[in-house]
Amino acid sequence: MPRAAERRTNQGGLWAGPRRHILDLDDFTKAEIEEVMLNADGMKEVLGRGVRKTPALRGKTVVTVFFEASTRTRVSFEQAGKILGADVINVTASASSVTKGESLLNTVRTLQAMQIDALVMRHPHSGAPYFVARHLDTSVVNAGDGTHAHPTQALLDIYTIERLRGKLAGKRVAIIGDILYSRVARSDMIGMLKMGAEVVVCGPPTLLPPGFTPGETVPEGQPFEGVRVARRVEEAVDGADVVMVLRIQRERQDAGHLPSLREYSREYGINAARLGLARPDALLMHPGPMNEGVEISSDVAHGDQSVIEEQVANGVAVRMAVLYMLCARARNGGS
Amino acid sequence: MPEVEIMTADQLRRALNRIAHEILERNASSSAVALVGVQTRGVFLARRIAEAVSGFERRSLDVGSLDPRLYRDDLDQSARQPLKPTDIKFDINDRPVVLVDDVLYTGRTIRAAMDALNDFGRPASIQLAVVVDRGHRELPIRPDYVGKNVPTSRDERVRVRLKEVDGEDGVVLTRPGDSQPSDAGPGDSRPADAGPGDGDAAGR
User: Fold this and answer.
1) Among all residues of chain A, which has the CA nearest to that of B76?
2) Residue B4's beta-bridge partner residues?
3) What is the pLDDT of residues A164-177, one digit of tens each?
4) Quick one: angle between helices A151-165 and A30-47, nearest 10?
5) Is the dihedral of CA A33, A34, A36, A40 positive or negative?
6) What ipTM did this prediction achieve?
7) To the nearest whole angstrom, how far is the Cα of B117 from the nearest Cα of chain A?
8) Which residues of B are less than 8 Å from A44 in CB distance?
9) Could you read off the pLDDT of B12-35 as tens digits, one per residue?
10) How many structural domains are present in chain B?
11) Do B86 and A42 touch (CB under 8 A)?
């Protein structure tokens, strides 16, 4: 699993050379997250032009390797790379030598030998991108590893909130659902706490991480310290500026963590009545893909407060920013 | 002597007024001339030139801003500071567009800015206005409007200071070996507050 000493960080917002990898948000400073957002502003402007193409990453190669299904994240990275002028190669694990029994390390070593500049990787095992980053010279972007982290999703969530509602500091974000197995929830909590938000979570007790006790705040010294754990979804949503609904993974039900989807929907599903408890201008977010009628009702998912499509659009801009910043340490570069 | 003042606030103001007149004179047949400032200081300079024009002729010019760094050829240098807003809300097709920047040096920033501009449309012409032309071009680029020509050596630095960014107006020349506050690392000649188009610092 992650070893902090092996990660290169930019500290204190001062330029300490370009960041090498993006594995999670825990080694980001607030200033660095703000830098990503400023760059994303510039990228969003590019997305609004008639000619959506710049030569910034011309001659760079970005490879996406997904060992797990994904539509929006993979396409988002691919589009981000292409708009910046990079060559983007998509490797789908099911159609690669992985099916012939090639090890993860050998697969990515082969890719590195082709002189790539960034490797965007999703893997079902937590920590896999850290393992790869230790063995490669290429920049590694974690596009989701098991139940551990999904840093670019958290960056785009933070960006979406701040650009629509201003600074996260002092805002209340309610995260509803499977907190234990959701990599989005984990990276969101880390990032939003860093930005100064008040984070309230709610989910079935079987799907809360260790140290999360309903009705209490995660104590000092524990991971995610300061997160408040609500007993009931109404209490979590009450007065929230943002309601973040997580996808319920149906496979959790098979493992016995969930009684039934119907019961989950009744106890924790976000519908118009529950969303009505949040602030009138509260944003409704979901990282997708949605199970409409389970964790979120169709009317609110497509209602006025929903910014779910905006999240997708902002995802491209944020991933452009991230690739731009990582590729600044070019093959010939470094510092 | 840490730095030499090469233009006072008054001289800068007069130079910008003169450039405003020259732009009007050169583009007399076209009512549609637009200004695009190169981030950071060029944006404020473009606004001042537009203000001067509205003072002389009671008409307002379209003013946009441009961060050309996504078009530069030195990614490892240019990505050090976050991007600044590019904002060109008007149609640039078939109109003369004047790029405005503070210092013209190697010409690489302007090359990038012209490439960026072409992604917004096809102007009738692209012209260039700068406060200081310090020489040492590395590309076949020349300015159409110049506040002041200042012969320099490559190790000197020219800084245009503007109230909006620096709290005061003026242009100074800094010689090598002069001590000056800088938190830049060893071997890093780029000032910490350098913007994307600060012609003097960029383009090496």
Assistant:
1) A328
2) B173
3) 999 999 999 999 99
4) 80
5) positive
6) 0.81
7) 11
8) none
9) 999 999 999 999 999 987 669 999
10) 1
11) yes
